[in-house]
Amino acid sequence: MSIAADDHVYAWYTDGTVSAGTSTNLEEYRAPYPYTAAAGKTLDDIVDLGIACSNDYVSAWYVDETVSIGTSWDLDERQEPYPYSLP
């Protein structure tokens, strides 16, 4: 789950859907709709998701130590996976 700049709470589910709402009603603004992982990745590869408050881009981190940038429904729409390193 992550909170966007407009305070909408996004929840991604393991069944391949995502919803937008509030902390007490996760689909108040948008009922569950499908999302896709980055090309070559599966939903099981996702380690974490987050929304940047500066631009609402969604980052998805994967078990193979790559990260993609996209939207709530297309996790690599803006940037295909590239390596990241842990501190």
Average pLDDT figure: 96
Strand order of the largest sheet: 1-2-3-4
Residue share in β-strands:
35-45%
Low-confidence stretches: none
Question: Care to describe what's here?
Answer:
It is a single chain. With about 90 residues, this protein is an all-beta fold. The chain has strands at about 1-5, 10, 15-20, 30-35, 45-50, 60, 65-70, 80-85. It has a 4-stranded antiparallel sheet, with no helix packed on it. A 4-stranded antiparallel sheet has the order 5-6-7-8, with no helix packed on it. The mean pLDDT is about 95.
Key features of this structure:
mainly beta, globular, four-stranded antiparallel beta sheet, about 90 residues
Write the topology of this structure:
Layout: E1 2-3, E2 9-12, E3 17-21, E4 30-34, E5 46-51, E6 58-62, E7 66-70, E8 79-83
Antiparallel strand pairs: 1-2, 2-3, 3-4, 5-6, 6-7, 7-8
Q: What would a concise description of this structure say?
A:
This protein has 87 residues and is an all-beta fold.
